[in-house]
Amino acid sequence: MERKFMKGNEAIAEAAVRAGCKFFAGYPITPQNEIPEYLSWRLREVGGDFVQAESEVSAINMVYGAASSGKPSMTSSSSTGISLKAEGMSYLAQAKLPAVIINVGRCGPGLGGILPAQSDYLFATKASGHGGFKMIVFAPSTVQEAVDLTYKSFDYAYRDRNPVMVLADGVVGIMMESVELPDFKEIKAPDWALSGTENEELKEIIPMCWSGEDLERDNIEMAKMFRRWEENDVQYEEYMLEDAEIVIASYGTSARICKTVIKEARKQGIKIGMLRPITLNPFPYKAFEKLDKSIVRKILIVEMTIPSQMIEDVELGVKGQIEIDTFGRSGGVVISPEEILNKVLEVKEGLK
Amino acid sequence: MKTLYTKPLSLRENGHKYCPGCMHGIANRIIGEAVDELAIRREMVGVIAVGCANLSQLYFNFDLIGAAHGRAAAVATGYKRMAKDRVVMCYQGDGDLASIGIAETLHAANRGENITVIFINNCIYGMTGGQMAPTTLIGQKSTTTIYGRNASTEGYPIRMAELISQLEAPAYVARFALNSPRNINDAKKGIKKAFTNQINNKGYSFVELLSNCPTNWKMNPKDTLDHVSNVTSKYFPLGVYRDKTEVEE
Where's the Thiamine pyrophosphate enzyme TPP-binding domain (chain B) (predicted)? Predict the structure, then answer.
């Protein structure tokens, strides 16, 4: 373990290198430019390669090609650029290729702006492209967590032969923090990879099926994988939940700000805690389902997007058993602890 | 007994599904022969496009990667960067390479990626049923230009070999036709040269092959041979547009 003071984007890039990443292709877009800038020199130091692609579309397809060799591959972008990668992410999923996609989110829709936001929740978790595939989606709330989750993402991508997304936001990307960097590891090219000429058997990476029955079988296998994720891979943090009558549901940068709010509210005698999804997909439905309805009187969803996007999953988790309220800022406005606290006080008032 | 003529090992045993008279079969065949003669079947990786070219994944008998529409050169870039010991060929049609994939095509060429791009130009979208391609000739009828391509509304057919030969990086850029034994022999030599360039790390090679589409041209296969000579190759002249390797030698 090595401790360093690093900007989020650079820390994500270094974590990928340490996870064994050997290829990166990307296209400049704010606020994630430090990732390609860092990897443009860093990957060549470790025997990998970097291509500044002519477009986001091209970048994700270069990753598709590199992943076919079995070498760990990654791309990064921000919201509007991730939209352009939708095609490629779908092809990666159907071709059963591992890859890591970093989304350092900014505000939208459209060109939106370069400021941080959490407006890509639904896009990341429900349908990041055509055809019904899904990805495991990690949502780091600190630079350290961005490092740890990026590092782990490669393992999940190779385990499942499926792309993995790290959904950060502009705050995590450009914030500087002290981080512990994980050890270097190598990921060996798996048997399916077009990794060399020594094999007698020919290999193919094909993102299609000639028969409907074959494709349906692939769809069924994918559905089984989604169920396995729900059983085994859900990650979340419970924060001061024991006696909480108000439970904040929040992730990423918003969740971090909410911790400050919870400490302050506790000082004022409010029984409040937080359930923070770390995997946005698979979502911690069961954690919401098992909240004690005799204690929890309100769930407050806090996100940097308007309207709330996570509400669709929280509702599925609580099944109408607990009232839900939402609070958010949007358009790149970073939510402040004061305004969240005011909302908490308003919610508390409403409980009487 | 001496074998004079046999199916290349680099083609699979199954019969092909191209339309009767289609020159994709000839293109597959001479690529297969070139790969066999250079003894690179184990090194070979085909990056296969969408459209009629997609069918070739059923026939090429070497490692294959299926690419999204137009993205073959980007996929080949990523793969070749990570697998420098492989010989990487993109196999793409005109709708794929010159329309939806023109950015990927030009930038891979401009970076001088050490890959070989085989471009089947038959002036029409085949698989989707005969729509106008970027290479459809002026006046040529298609299902989206039913009165013939009109330059004032659809622009002019794009000459890819000429366009790519304007870039600094490419090592070899040439156009051949598949409509006569002589032209087919020339095309095969060009393909072998393009593969040899890659093996010798000379960089990017682009081989355009003028092809036909009896089905969507609504022409019998025999007449398409004359059409390629008398019409297609008048707008898309055959020849070598760039050969850096010749200068070096």
Answer: 60-208
